[in-house]
Amino acid sequence: MAAVLKKRALAEYSQTVTQDAAHLPTKRLKLVKKPLPGAPSSLITVVNALDECKTSDEFLLLLLSISDSMQVGSAGVIEVLKKLVEHFKNEAESAVRVKILMLLTDIGLQNVSECVILAEEIINLIKNDTSHKVLAQGMNAILKLGMLVPESATSYHQKLVDVAKNYLKDSHHAVKCKCLEIIGTHVPLCSGNDSDKLFHLISSYFNNQDARLRSQAFSTVILLYERGFKVNPNIYVFVSDALKDDYEIVRSVALKLIWILGNAYPDNEILVPGSVHEIRLIDDAFGKICNGVTDLSMQVRTLACELLGTMKQISPKFLTQTLDKKLMSNMRRKRTAHELAWENVTSGEWASGKKWADDAPKELLKADSISLMSSGACGAFVHGLEDEFLEVRSAAVKSLCQLSISNPHFANMALDFMVDMFNDEIEDVRLKAIDSLREISAHIILRDDQLETILGALEDFSQEVREGLHRMLATCKMSTMGGLKMCVEKLLDNLKRYPQDKRSTYRCLQSIGRKHPELVVPLVPHFLSIHPFCDMAEPDVENPHYICHLILILNAAENSGTIISLLEPHTLRHYAYLRDTMPQFVPVLSLSETTGNSISRQMSVDESLAYLNNVISNLDVAETMTSIHISLLEMAKEQLNRLSEIDESVSGTAQFTALYIGAQLQILQILDRGFWVNPATLATQQQNTLKTNIQILLEYCLKLQFFFVGLNAEEQCAVKQFRLRALALNLVYIVKGSNSSALAPCHHFLTAVEEMQKDLSQNNIQPDGFTSLVFRDLSQIEEPKPGAVSRILTPILLSPKIASIPRPNINIRMSSANIIEPSGQGDTSLKFTAGLIMSVPFEAELTHLLDPSRIRLKIKYPDQRTQVVVPKPTHLKPLHYDTLNKEPPIGYNIRLLSSVLVSHQVWSEACNVEMNIALCVPEADIGKRKSSMDSNPTMLDLCAPVRVSIAPKPIKKTL
């Protein structure tokens, strides 16, 4: 019966291969997606069905039923075009003609080679049309299709521009807007008189009565600037007038154009209205954009605040004025004493004293006419930070940070305003203010009053805000010893209220100690309770507050030798304990020999890398029997695992090489015994052992593929070629020793072969012996059925030698996970009512991930029932592991903050539930076929599970 099923399964799997005269090195597989049942087979069929429609409504419904994913081949474009054009000419309903134009546009976007023909046909179709909707859609089709033509075809683009200029005479705003957009997108680059004529044409619409046309005219100028046109700065006056427009769409695009002109011509001098003084163009543009901060529209205010942060060439007096609401000189233009005396002499009049204020200045002018600085710049950031909308406040904080990074003086002025934003009602604004202050921390020194305001925000309920404050305090510089003491005490008080912030507080104090060794030295006796005459009680080394003090002092001792002499003997013993238990928070200190504590330093990277190279070289040179070779590989694997524990800098490289050697050991043991050649003759126990060994080999390949980041192209191809060998071995086993269908493993193997060839050709890498033989033999096979493929693979698996081990790459890192909460060390059991749900807080740190979307939470109950949970994207936070390390991280560093929901029925006693973090990998990689009986994806554990004792209680029955 099994043979009949197997024969039937093989008969269902067929493949037609066409081979050219020049023999291809690999098998090319073409996968054809079958159309959905009930769907039209092609666009030609649908278009032919238009002849059967009798009314315009039927035409429109049929056109609307065409799916966007439907494609038409290049051979059928002409026929479809003829049908649609014929229906367009005979159709009286404008809505149907608009839909036909949309369909023609979609066809042109799918068949780029025919876009020129389609554009010409559309131009001819709309030539005699009178509907504004049809003309607007025709212009839109010309715009999209013309973008597919290369810019080198200037004559064709100029033809489209001429068509657009012709339709500018239309009275409808939609047609004119599309025409202006075509001109801005397709007009060829020009200069001189041609450029002046072009800008004169566009600028003629700056004062159009329709706001949509005015907005599109300014947008067209922006399009031309982005394409490389030189914008005439003389239009600055017209754009400035548009800032007073009644419509926000005009004001917003005018703001962008003002910003472009200011950055393009920063040093051009313009005349201040009502004055003889001149001002730099960028300063005036900055003032006008500042006016937008007080606009009526929230969108315009947000845009103005965003643009302010990108203007870097502002004069200092204008920049500082944005933080002060009071305009200088009491809104009057000050004159020198010589000017005042000269006016008194030349006026011919003297003050008689009979009239009040007889000698008062006569030129009391308005602020807009005499102030050399626009009143909009006055307190612009103050207005933005006090806005009622969070979008405006957020944009103002971001711009304030951008300007402060490049201007230390402005950063110190903006510090108080940034600190005030810590009390904002919106959490996102508070976080952005905290991160902004952290970015400008290199330019500022916190005063005690500012530090007090910052520390007040530590009482925030949001853990993300508190940890953001910890990162910010870790980068800032404090001015006084009292401020440092206040900061440490506040952090410790906050730790009592929120114990979950323990690790974040440790990192914060670690950085504070490194940055302030001179301030920590006088506080050492206070923090460690050192009395000059009396011996105090030895503190508990497990106390988090005492650990915080030790982390602060020991990190300060790294840059100050005075602190070590102040420490007591029990403190030095505690240092040795912390160095072993949490080395990431405590540095390596050079202690004197009299202390009796010796902390060995790690080996250098060069020594470790040389040792790693030596191990791999010895394995490559060794030409021995299989049994001796296996023993050498086992010894090398143990040495590399030990090296990964000793030197963290080469840990990922050593772990990768050790895992690669482990996979080689596994495949050598399978091939050496020879059972895989004919597994059907084995006993049940031997067959299960062989199957288990192959599954372990495939898991090794998955770990090599998904557990490591920083691999170069050669190492990735080496891993994939080794995986190809494992998949071949698995396919041979399934065909020869299993009754299950081999269609899915065979298809997956052939797909892997095709991908392998692409990767090798793209990276110009030569395949190893096994891969080259597979490429050669599979290219000659007629039908890639599982039986035929397995017969080809069997001699290939026996013949070549195992590929050499890849040379180490120092940038390789292995993915890892550290579960912080729950710790699994509690003696008490968590109790809840059976049948209900209990939430267990879960916190973990995941480093060097290849793809964070593969993270899964795995909960295993004592009855062997396993539950897999996909964490929410909001529960995955970026892990700011080391604020002092400026190097970019390799892979993704993620912090997982979530809650695990546990539920079960009544247990007789408390039992342990295992919680773990795993990576979900593609199921096809282990050769399984997804079915209703076996639909669980493959999970690779990232760390050891944590056990939590749980006791579901029975429901209490009360009256």
UniProtKB/TrEMBL annotation:
One of its GO terms (biological process) is snRNA processing. Residues 818-954 form the Integrator complex subunit 4/Protein SIEL C-terminal Ig-like domain. Residues 610-809 form the INTS4 8 helical bundle domain. Keywords: Nucleus. This is Integrator complex subunit 4. It is found in: Nucleus. InterPro entries: ARM-like (IPR011989), ARM-type_fold (IPR016024), INTS4_8HBD (IPR056235), INTS4_C (IPR057412). Its main location: nucleus. One of its GO terms (cellular component) is integrator complex. It comes from the Eukaryota. SUPFAM superfamilies: ARM repeat.
